[in-house]
Each structure stands twice: as structure tokens, then as C-alpha cells.
Design brief:
Elements: H1 14-25, H2 29-38, H3 44-51, E1 65-73, E2 76-83, H4 89-101, E3 107-113, E4 115-122, H5 127-145, H6 147-155, E5 159-167, E6 175-183, H7 190-210, H8 216-221, E7 223-229, E8 236-245, H9 257-273, H10 275-295, H11 300-311, E9 321-326, E10 329-337, H12 351-359, H13 365-387, H14 392-407, H15 412-421, H16 429-441
Antiparallel strand pairs: 1-2, 3-8, 4-6, 4-7, 5-6, 8-10, 9-10
Helix pairs in contact: 1-2, 4-13, 5-7, 9-10, 10-11, 10-13, 14-16
Bound molecules: (R)-mevalonate.
Length: 442
């Protein structure tokens, strides 16, 4: 009998989990079981390590780990590891890297490295009492009462840099926040921030009960709703930029440098004014950003959430890259909020993450932020460059050709022949099938 509901799934061992799953959820249990077990690492230590990252793990999910070489960043050369399944992204990044290598490279800097967290609470009493209590008493107590948690971070040069009381009652009745600013040094800092905030929420309740300033009704009206970091970090920003004389922009696609610069600027302007284009424009940037974020074991969902919030900070969703032309020079840059780390989380656990960080020269978190911003800018440059000249499909489909051939079940020999055949032709799905069928008939 099919049984789609299970009790105690997490208690089953890996094989029992798989057996239950394939028996109850698939039509071909043996085949699916074979696929799932095929992806187990033959080294049981490595397999165990990966299983323990998450819960109910039954297999591993491979992603291509690629390298985009030749990135000149602030005078040093980097080979950037990128984990991404989409064809043509790594090739595009590499092409941009080469282009800017010959034009002075990328310049980067950190505009800020602070993170935020909030104790969200409701309070129905006298606001001025709350303000006075916070400024004259609570703020200091919160710092003292979190000293145990912040000790190590303070020793490393970080910790809590500010605590504010924010009145949000214009947005929601009785709503206030304790907003805490953190410097988490080389860690992304999520656990550190959340531990501090949860400790603070306990102290707030404890302290208001003891206070003689508030009436009993006011004391009881203060309700903590939740304490959590914000994934929006507008003060944790890396800037990456490039610039060159317009005449040095010379493009291989037969467009003049002046036309290229002008059209490029227009493409950025369009993404500044039109959210439909901005979404696609920024998606391309995130192809570069996410792939380095994943390769270095960071939380790409956090980065995505932050970046898109930042892109809409003016109330309108806009381009993350910017461009202007002045005195015959082309200037192009990106400001990216990136809350990432090189310690904590998976960063020191996943062998491929350790390898990625080493390939990048074991950067500090700030350096890694700058490398990631470069990957985003490079990706956008490659996309816009194609879009305003040859169109995106030419390069993209060429890179996608192998996927199509694999889907068709082409042999190595057939692949070789067809890759060679399409070298100087436009690749379309239709055309590939037609040429493949012709080859088969021969
Ligand atoms: C595809 O993954 C990304 C692009 O659509 C980005 C863009 O249009 O700028 C090529």
C-alpha cells in the first residue's frame, strides 16, 4: 500500500529513508535508488561530512565548479571560482576579465562593513518614558549584559557599534524597534547577531519589570514580538569599478568605440528607469555574484534578499550597475551590499569551499566582498556588451550546444563533429536537432 505520510522519517537511516521514498513516491524505485546512491561519495568521511550539513540527506547534488581566470583587481591577479549550472556565465566572466585586464583592471573598495539586527516589540505606554529609559539606562545595560557574548568578537576588533530605539508607530500601531549595529569582522555573523538580540530581548523584559518609571499597565503592554538580524545590510557595501578612454573600448563586433559607449550607457539608463529590464539586468549580475557566493560557502539566499532590497531602496526597483561618460572617459561601477564571511558556517568545513578560498588567496571577508562585486560587474559588462552588439543568443547558444547534444544522447564522436560544424554558425535548438538527425542518417 502506498504510504505518503511518514512518522519519524528523520530517525530512519539513509538507506531506509531512500527505500521508503522510492517505494512511496516513484514509479521506478530501483532506478531512482540507483541514481540517488550513485552520487554518494566513495570516501565515507566526506559523505558523512556533507550529510551532516543539513537534515534528512539522502544524496549529494552536484553543480559545476568552474574557474574564471585573468581578473586584475587592485593590481593583483585572481582566478575566480564559480559554482553555477548555467552555461555561458563562466565564459562571459572570463571574457570580461580579459577585456579589463588589458584596460587597467578592476578597482574596488569597501564603503562599509556594518550589519543590523532588531528586537521588534510593541509598547502601548508613554513614549517619552520609553525614550528616557532607553537613553539613560537600558542602552548601557544591553551593552553590559551582552558582554559575555560579544567578548571574542570584541577581541577580534568587532562587536556592537551602536544601539538605537526606533519609533515605528507611524507604520504600525505601538511598534518599536531596538536597532543594533554590529561589526562581525570576518564572519557573516548571523549566529552572533541573533544570540545578542535574543539576550537583549530577555534583558528588556527583565529590566522593565524592575523599573520604577513605568506603571504596571505600561510594563505589561511591552511585548517582544521577535529578535532577528536583518538580511538587508545597506551599510555593508563593496564597490567595484572600471574606467577607460572611450577609444579603448574598441569592440570586436564591428561597432565603433563611441557608439559602443553611448549604447552601453543607454542600456544602463534603461535598467535605471524600467523595473522589467532592471530585474533581468540584475539577474545577470547575480549570475556572477551567486556563483562566487556559493563557491565560497556563503548564504546566497541572504545575499539575494539583500541585493534586491537594496536595488529597490528608492521605492523603485533599479539597476545595480551605473555608468557615465565624461571628458572622453567611460566610467562604470557597481555598489553591492554583501553580508558574507570567511569564517563560520560552511566556510571552514566544505572541502571545496576551503579550496575556493585558497584559490582566492585566503581573502579577508572584506576582500572577498570586493571580489564578489567584481564578479557581478564583470557579468553585467559581458551581458550588456552582447546585448547591444551581437545579441545574447549567439554566445549563449554556442555554450548551450553541449547541453542540447547531451539531451539528444549524442556520442562523443557526434558531439565533436557537431561542435565543429556549429563553430561558424548560429546555434538554435531546431538547427541542432536537424543536423543531429542528418548525422544519424549518415
Ligand atoms: C541570463 O542569465 C542573464 C541575462 O539575461 C542578463 C541581462 O539580460 O543583462 C543575459
Amino acid at each position: 500500500m502506498i504510504n505518503k505520510i511518514v512518522e519519524g522519517f528523520s530517525k530512519l537511516n539513509k538507506e531506509e529513508k531512500i527505500n521508503w521514498l522510492v517505494d512511496n513516491y516513484t514509479n521506478n524505485p530501483q532506478t531512482i535508488k540507483k541514481i540517488l546512491t550513485q552520487y554518494w561519495n566513495e570516501d565515507s568521511e566526506i559523505q558523512k561530512l556533507h550529510e551532516e550539513f543539513s537534515e534528512n540527506t539522502i544524496s549529494n547534488f552536484y553543480m559545476p565548479f568552474g574557474i574564471a581566470p585573468n581578473f586584475l583587481i587592485n593590481g593583483s591577479i585572481y582566478a575566480i571560482p564559480m559554482v553555477i549550472e548555467e552555461s555561458s556565465v563562466v565564459a562571459a566572466a572570463s571574457k570580461s576579465a580579459k577585456f579589463w585586464l588589458e584596460r587597467g583592471g578592476f578597482k574596488t573598495k569597501i564603503l562599509g562593513n556594518l550589519k543590523l539586527g532588531h528586537v521588534h516589540f510593541l509598547y502601548k505606554g508613554d513614549k517619552s518614558k520609553l525614550n528616557n529609559w532607553f537613553s539613560n539606562y537600558l542602552k548601557n545595560i544591553l551593552l553590559i549584559e551582552t558582554e559575555e557574548i560579544t567578548k571574542n568578537m570584541r577581541n577580534r576588533g568587532g562587536g556592537i557599534t551602536n544601539i538605537e530605539l526606533l519609533d515605528k508607530t507611524n507604520d504600525l500601531n505601538d511598534y518599536f524597534q531596538i536597532q543594533v549595529t554590529f561589526d562581525t569582522q570576518d564572519s557573516m555573523g548571523a549566529n552572533f547577531i541573533n544570540s545578542c538580540l535574543e539576550q537583549m530581548s530577555r534583558i528588556i523584559i527583565e529590566q522593565i519589570q524592575r523599573s520604577e518609571m513605568f506603571t504596571q499597565i505600561e510594563k505589561e503592554s511591552l511585548q517582544i514580538v521577535m529578535s532577528i538580524l536583518s538580511n538587508y545590510t545597506p551599510n555593508c557595501i563593496a564597490r567595484a569599478e572600471v574606467s577607460c578612454k572611450i577609444e579603448d573600448l574598441g569592440d570586436e563586433n564591428g561597432i565603433s568605440s563611441e557608439d559602443f559607449a553611448w549604447k552601453f550607457e543607454q542600456a544602463i539608463c534603461i535598467a535605471e528607469v524600467d523595473p522589467f529590464r532592471a530585474a533581468t539586468h540584475n539577474k545577470g549580475i547575480m549570475n556572477g555574484v551567486d556563483s562566487v557566493v556559493i563557491a565560497t560557502g556563503n548564504d546566497f539566499r541572504a545575499v539575494e534578499a539583500c541585493v534586491h532590497t537594496y536595488a529597490s531602496r528608492t521605492g523603485k526597483y533599479k539597476s545595480l550597475t551605473h555608468c557615465y561618460i565624461e571628458n572622453g572617459k567611460f566610467h562604470y561601477w557597481i555598489d553591492l551590499p554583501l553580508a558574507i564571511g570567511i569564517v563560520g558556517g560552511l566556510t571552514q568545513l566544505h572541502p571545496l569551499v576551503i579550496a575556493s578560498l585558497q584559490i582566492l588567496g585566503n581573502p579577508s571577508a572584506e576582500k572577498l566582498m570586493q571580489i564578489i562585486a567584481v564578479a557581478g560587474l564583470a557579468q553585467n559588462f559581458a551581458a550588456i556588451r552582447s546585448l547591444i552588439t551581437s545579441g545574447i543568443q549567439k554566445g549563449h547558444m554556442k555554450m548551450h550546444l553541449l547541453n542540447i547534444l547531451n539531451q539528444l544522447g549524442a556520442t562523443e564522436q557526434e558531439k565533436q563533429y557537431l561542435v565543429n560544424y556549429f563553430k561558424d554558425k548560429t546555434v538554435s535548438y531546431h538547427q541542432v536537432i536537424s543536423e543531429f538527425n542528418k548525422l544519424k542518417k549518415q
